[in-house]
Design brief:
- It is a single chain.
- The protein is elongated and about 60 Å long.
- The longest helix has 33 residues.
- It has four helices and no strands.
- It has one domain.
- It is mostly helical.
Length: 141
């Protein structure tokens, strides 16, 4: 019999991750030296990490109420990682944006590397969660 709370928590986590997986590659098609595009990329990262942290917190509470504390801790770690990643990414993006505005040509390459890093981070987390679904969905014995 599947554990409905664990499936609920997993789906809540997967929604922002799938959104980012689909939305982030579109920025590979545009130049990041255009201020509005870079600001939109920054806003997307900010929203993604904030949404993921909130979704993970909700999922963690749902699973903890069900009594699956190990899974709740794992989902809590995802929430903590998303919150700390948001601060880390936004600080670096703001620094690159300021450098770009000051005329530094390498700043755009730095923004692109951050973009690739964010997509890679999301893909790794997504792969781990999808790989764990068979173990998450089974009710503890």
């Amino acid at each position: 019999m599947p554990d409905n709370f664990a499936l609920f928590a997993t789906i809540i986590l997967l929604l922002p991750m799938f959104y980012f997986l689909l939305a982030a590659p579109a920025f590979l098609l545009v130049r990041l030296d255009i201020p509005q595009v870079a600001q939109l990329l920054r806003a997307m990262f900010s929203g993604y990490f904030l949404t993921l942290a909130i979704a993970a917190a909700v999922g963690m509470v749902a699973v903890a109420v069900e009594g699956r504390l190990v899974l709740a801790i794992g989902i809590g770690l995802i929430a903590a990682f998303a919150a700390s990643s948001r601060r880390w990414f936004l600080r670096r993006m703001d620094a690159r944006l300021n450098d770009r505005d000051a005329g530094d040509a390498d700043a755009v390459r730095g923004l692109r590397r951050l973009h690739w890093g964010g997509m890679a981070s999301n893909a790794i987390q997504l792969a781990v969660i999808v790989a764990c679904i068979p173990y998450i969905a089974v009710a503890p014995a």
